[in-house]
Amino acid sequence: MRVILNPRHAAHSPPHEVDNGTLTPPCDVPGRLAAIRAALGRRSGFTFEDAPPIAEGAVTALHDPAYVAYLREASAGLRPGQAVYPSVFPYGPAPRVRGGKALRGAYCFDTFTPITAGTFAAALGGAAAAVRAADLIAAGERAVYVLTRPPGHHAERDRCGGYSYLNNAALAADRLSRLGKVAVLDLDVHHGNGTQHLFYDRADVLTASIHGDPARLFPYFSGFDDETGTGPGLGFNRNFPLPPVTDRDYDPVLAAAVELVGRFRPAFLVVAFGADAHADDPIGGFALPTEYFGEMGAAVRRLGLPTAVVQEGGYNLDVLGGCVAAFLESLAADG
Ligand code: OKP
Ligand code: ZN
């Protein structure tokens, strides 16, 4: 399987996150990508290539050009080691954005997602990898893996959050949607609110996400099962919120989500893949064993669709690579 790497991921390495008024160590560290790269390198069947660069115009079809310019300019204004966080978020009937502090809150929905000097370069490198994977799938590859960080599935049209700045999976899906219907299956333990948001009114891209119940897990405000789309997109978004479960209770839900994808009859599939539903993940709370990620890969393989897999979360460096390898090896298996 071809693995498309984000060559700029390490440029983004935030010093910390802010949680409940406290500086906490970052979860999305460069070592995540290194761990996955090493695990895949120990197995046969994976080839690695850097994504060729893309122009900013490749992401402004989906993301607000002013938001993308904000990310670029905010990054450019910082020295190494500096980080910019929002402190005040939009409020009132007619929030107005006139200065830097308002921009920070207008374009970001949490305090976990700082902008640093290298953030824009890293985010654009991830988008480039996703675009490259989409183009390879469009050209006839059966399965391609995008190895990138920071994640992307929480990024909305004009807002970063949840460690995500540009929505890599959505960019791949949108690119493929020019050629046929696309399904996005989000297996990260957190709801893919950004992807849902970007396609909420579209019938040509089905979005389905299995995740921890947002009543208790990030991103809290969305991912409930009554969010099903709007306008022409009504019925083309489906959420499967779950309590913290083991593989036994996850499995029937995975089967239902996969069946939903199959019934949609897409030409292409994009998997937003996270390993953070693993039992040993520090923030997910679920209880899946490493081997079960192989079952997930097998379920996706049985759909028989050309598939781009985009890396999202997964924060235990000791198990992350094994989960990714199990998923991809089953996905690529014969028969
Ligand atoms: C991004 B992805 C712990 C709280 C952090 C944010 C989670 C973002 C997950 N300090 N909560 O979906 O893996
Ligand atoms: Zn996650």
Structural class by SSE content: alpha/beta
CATH class reads: Alpha Beta
Count of domain modules? 1
Tell me the overall shape.
globular
Average pLDDT value?
98
Gyration radius, to the nearest Å?
18 Å
Number of helices: 9
What is the annotated CATH architecture?
A: 3-Layer(aba) Sandwich
Strand content: 15-25%
Secondary structure tally: strands? 12
Q: Quote the CATH topology.
A: Arginase, Chain A
Biggest sheet details: 8 strands, parallel
Bound molecules: {5-[(3-aminopropyl)amino]pentyl}boronic acid, zinc ion
CATH H-level superfamily title: Histone deacetylase domain
Q: Your description of this structure?
A:
The protein contains nine helices and twelve strands. It is an alpha/beta fold. The protein has a single domain, classed as Arginase, Chain A. The chain has an eight-stranded parallel sheet, sandwiched between helices. Strands 2-3 form a two-stranded antiparallel sheet. Helix 1 crosses helix 9 and helix 4 packs parallel to helix 5. The chain starts with a strand and ends with a helix. Bound molecules: {5-[(3-aminopropyl)amino]pentyl}boronic acid and zinc ion. Zinc ion (ZN) binds next to loops. The site of zinc ion (ZN) has 7 residues, from loops.
